[in-house]
Each structure stands twice: as structure tokens, then as C-alpha cells.
Design goal:
A five-stranded mixed β-sheet has the order 1-2-7-6-5, with no helix packed on it. The protein has a four-stranded antiparallel β-sheet with strand order 3-4-9-8, with no helix packed on it. It has one domain: Sandwich (Immunoglobulin-like). By secondary structure, it is mainly beta. It has no helices and nine strands.
Length: 137
């Protein structure tokens, strides 16, 4: 006899945006949020997938300085002028996040791609950090 393996439906919960509490002050008087980020690892690279809804390619800065990867996405607020939302589940604001990189990342080969509000960063591992097979004599 086969058991019924139906999974109970789960309620959808709204995830509030986490407001960034910066260590340094921003020169732009606006709220900054921490973009939701997934990190995947393979033998060859780390992949960071970040949600940045409403941010255009021209308004994203990805900078690397002193082993710190800094990502900033700015919203064009002119698109929201005059709108009076009846209901809103997330606040509109800029995005900012930083990551400290180790020497296991080949910093010269980092790549970034933006598709439909999703920023994907590929951080290739340095050659010395790649797994390798040791021959037995």
C-alpha cells in the first residue's frame, strides 16, 4: 500500500528589506538596502547572485579595492515621482553590499552580468586554490 506523500501547503511570507547600516556616511541622502544574495561554489569559482530590482546597468558600480569587493546599485527615483502606492511590500531605495575576498579568488578575472534585476558576479578561484589530483609514485 502506498502512502500519501502530499506536502502541506506553506504560507507565503513577505520578507522585509534589510536596511543597510553603513560604517561610513553616504553623500547621497537616500536609504540603502542590503540586496538578497545567494552564493554558490563549484571547484572553479564562487557565484554571487544578487537581487537588485529596478536598478539599471548604468547605475551599478562593482569595485575592488584592498581585497574588498563593493557593489552599489542606485535607483532612478524619477520613475517613482508622483506615484501614491495603495499597497507596498517593499521600500524603494539604493542597494549596497561588500565582501572581503581572500587570496583564493583570482581578482583579475571577476565578471559581472545584469539580467532582469539580477546581478550575477563570477569570482574564479585562483589557480593555487583549485583542487588537483596528486599522483602517487
Amino acid at each position: 500500500m502506498m502512502e500519501d506523500t502530499m506536502v502541506a501547503p506553506q504560507e507565503l511570507a513577505v520578507q522585509p528589506k534589510k536596511e543597510l547600516t553603513p560604517k561610513e556616511e553616504k553623500t547621497v541622502p537616500a536609504r540603502y538596502y542590503v540586496p538578497n544574495t545567494d552564493i554558490h561554489e563549484t571547484d572553479e569559482a564562487l557565484t554571487l547572485v544578487m537581487e537588485m530590482p529596478g536598478v539599471e546597468k548604468k547605475n551599478i558600480d562593482v569595485k575592488l579595492e584592498n581585497d574588498v569587493l563593493r557593489i552599489e546599485g542606485r535607483i532612478d527615483f524619477s520613475k517613482y515621482e508622483g506615484l501614491d502606492p495603495v499597497y507596498a511590500e517593499y521600500n524603494v531605495g539604493h542597494f549596497s553590499r561588500t565582501f572581503a575576498l581572500s587570496n583564493k579568488i583570482d581578482q583579475d578575472r571577476i565578471q559581472a552580468d545584469l539580467q532582469d534585476g539580477i546581478l550575477t558576479l563570477t569570482l574564479p578561484k585562483a589557480k593555487q586554490a583549485l583542487p588537483r589530483q596528486i599522483p602517487i609514485n
